[in-house]
Amino acid sequence: MLIHVNWDSEVLARFPKLSLCIGIINLVSVEKDNEQIQRLRKAVYEEVRGKYNIETLKDNPTVRAYRDLYWRLDIDPTKTRPSGEALLRRVLHGDELPRISTVVDAYNLASMKTIVPISGFDKDRLNPPFQVRFAKNGEAFRGIGMSKPMTLTDKMLVLADGKQVLCVYPYRDSDHTKISEQTRNVLIVGYGAPGIAEKQLSEAVETTLSYIRLAFGGETEIIRVFSSPPK
Questions:
Q1: Using one digit for the tens of pLDDT, what is the confidence trace for 114-142?
Q2: What CA–CA distance (Å, rounded) separates 182 from 225?
Q3: I need a labelling partner for 6 at 20 to 30 A (CA). Which of 33, 43, 76, 227 fits?
Q4: Kind of pairing, strands 130-134 and 140-141?
Q5: CA distance linking residue 138 with residue 160, whole number of Å
Q6: What does 44-110 look like in DSSP terms, one character per residue?
Q7: Residues 80-105: pLDDT tens digits?
């Protein structure tokens, strides 16, 4: 798959230092659960519970960067939390993450560990090139788990392909392109924010792909950071 990301001029004007990282892993075999992901889940839970404190998490530089992005998008991050922080808070409170499938669980674990919002898509349902833009008023979007589409506004930052919105940036993914047990090829996206270094994004996606390979194999095709060009 030829990967290219276009940045809308309005996005460039408001967020001149924005990046995302894309990774592709092919020939996966998605399962409901297996021993490898169970062991990985236990190890990552122990790691983050030993590293982070729920009381001081809001002061973490990565948490702060995504919260600042949310405020600039008119989203209250104390009510709608960036996905990496939301997953981490859940585990720090003593709960477990939802168990969806081995691939989804793997990228949720990576997102929780790195605090970087991560999406996973069925690569064969995508229509690149991709675009980071603001939604159009009235544009319909059906996220995972939604019974009916929501109506987007032009204040919402989205990742889209040639046919549809893939993600409300960076916390809700499309139901149409979600990973299922029929998925064989996966595209991972790590979402940046002002203040998040390209290396940090790349490492988050590399961690994600390593977790997927650990859980059930697969072959990595590409890991690449796409940064918004200078104005």
A1: 999 999 999 999 999 999 999 999 999 99
A2: 28
A3: 76
A4: unpaired
A5: 15
A6: HHHHHHHH--TTTGGGSHHHHHHHHHHHHTT--TTTS--HHHHHHHHHHTT-------HHHHHHHHH
A7: 999 999 999 999 999 999 999 999 99
Number of domains, the chain: 1
Kindly list the distances between the CA atom of residue 12 and the CA atoms of 4, 18, 194, in Å, as whole numbers in the listed order.
Answer: 16, 8, 12
Interatomic CA distance for residues 175 and 157, integer angstroms:
18
Q: What is the CATH number of the domain that holds 139?
A: 3.50.40.10
- Supply the range of the domain harboring residue 48: 5-227
Q: Residues with Cβ < 8 Å from 222, sequence gap 6 or more?
A: 3, 22, 23, 24
Structure-block tokens of residue 83? 């996905």
Alpha-carbon Rg for the chain, nearest whole angstrom, is 17
Distance CA 186, CA 207 (A): 15
Do 69 and 135 contact (CB within 8 A), yes or no? no
How many Å apart are CA 44 and CA 68, to the nearest integer?
26
Q: What does the DSSP 8-state code read for residue 176? A: T
Residue whose entry in the numeric block shows the structure tokens 């792909």: 209
Instruction: Tell me the C-alpha distance between 41 and 48, whole Å.
Output: 11
* Residue whose tokens read 């890991």: 223
The tokens for 85 are 């922080």
What are the pLDDT digits (tens) for 174-189? 999 999 999 999 999 9
Backbone angles phi, psi at 207, to 5 degrees: -60, -45
Q: Residue 185 corresponds to which tokens in the numbers above?
A: 């090829």
Residue 25 sits at the vertex; the CA angle it makes with 19 and 30, to the nearest 5 degrees, is: 120
